[in-house]
């Protein structure tokens, strides 16, 4: 009986000490393992006037990834003679996320109106790309940064 009490006391002290040292219980570990998504990652690219009508890949996402947010910062205004626009989308739907007119004059991260709501669950492996369109293809200046925040499963 004495051995049982000593064993129980040591077990209690040992597991209590582990809890204080930052170790987790099996139940806590199992709960964490059910959360399959890891930290939020970031992929970014710069689009310049020289990229007119050229799709630039930002990130290739695997099945079940989640796109959390897309931020756009206009660094330099585009000076095309026509309408300057920017699309951010998927490989088969280039304006799925963003279809916007650039040259807002703002050179800070812009709030973007999304064509489809985020977060977005990637159903099959896909690529997020961006494309600048100069209306007359005669731009000599312009630069925008695009940042995609996502998680992988």
List keywords for this structure.
five-stranded antiparallel sheet, alpha+beta, 18% helix, Jelly Rolls, 2 domains, 153 residues, elongated, four-stranded antiparallel sheet
Notes on the structure:
This protein is α+β, with helices and mostly antiparallel strands and 153 residues long. It has 2 domains: 33 residues, no CATH class; 111 residues, Jelly Rolls, CATH 2.60.120. The strands form 2 sheets. Strands 1, 3, 6, 7 and 9 form a 5-stranded antiparallel sheet that branches. A 4-stranded antiparallel sheet has the order 2-8-4-5, with no helix packed on it. The relative contact order is 0.29. About 4% of the residues have low confidence.
CATH architecture of the largest domain: Sandwich
Uncertain segments of ≥5 residues (pLDDT<50)? Answer: 16-21
CATH top level class name of the largest domain: Mainly Beta
Distance separating the two termini:
50 Å
Number of domains: 2
* Strand-pairing-aware structural class: alpha+beta
Query: What's the overall geometry?
Result: elongated
- Average pLDDT: 78
Report the β-strand fraction as a percent range.
35-45%
What is the helix tally? 2
CATH topological fold name of the largest domain: Jelly Rolls
Q: Profile the largest sheet.
A: 5 strands, antiparallel
- Give the radius of gyration: 25 Å
- Quick one: how many beta strands? 9
Topology:
Blueprint: H1 2-20, H2 26-34, E1 41-48, E2 56-61, E3 66-76, E4 84-90, E5 93-101, E6 109-110, E7 120-121, E8 126-134, E9 143-151
Antiparallel strand pairs: 1-9, 2-8, 3-6, 3-7, 3-9, 4-5, 4-8
């Amino acid at each position: 009986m004495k051995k049982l009490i000593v064993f129980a006391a040591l077990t209690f002290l040992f597991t209590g000490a582990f809890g204080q040292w930052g170790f987790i219980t099996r139940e806590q570990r199992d709960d964490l393992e059910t959360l399959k998504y890891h930290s939020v990652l970031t992929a970014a690219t710069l689009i310049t006037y020289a990229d007119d009508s050229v799709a630039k890949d930002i990130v290739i996402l695997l099945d079940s990834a989640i796109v959390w947010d897309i931020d756009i910062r206009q660094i330099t205004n585009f000076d095309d003679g026509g309408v300057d626009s920017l699309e951010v989308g998927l490989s088969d739907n280039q304006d799925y996320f963003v279809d916007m007119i650039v040259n807002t004059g703002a050179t800070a991260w812009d709030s973007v109106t999304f064509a489809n709501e985020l977060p977005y669950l990637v159903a099959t492996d896909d690529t997020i790309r961006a494309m600048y369109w100069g209306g007359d293809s005669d731009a000599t200046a312009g630069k925008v940064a695009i940042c995609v925040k996502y998680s992988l499963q």
